[in-house]
Task: structure prediction
Amino acid sequence: MREEEKMTQNRWNLFATVRAQRLRIETLETEVAELQRHYVRMAELVDVVQELLIPIAQRDEARIAEAIEAFDKSL
Result:
């Protein structure tokens, strides 16, 4: 009977480990999704900066106003 108790305990330990790993994976997946949203937002901001820098360098006030308006709408 002692051997059966060890096997039962080992199974419970295995189940607990698998459950903990699944929870960790879910947490990591959530964090990855959040980081992906941040990276997309960062890319959008880089685009806005580029859209602003070119017209500023060319002194194109109309394009500057359009870029700022597009940025405001994205917020």
In short: The helical segments are 2-58, 61-74. Residues 48 and 71 are 7 Å apart (CA to CA). The chain has a mean pLDDT of 87. The chain has two helices and no strands.
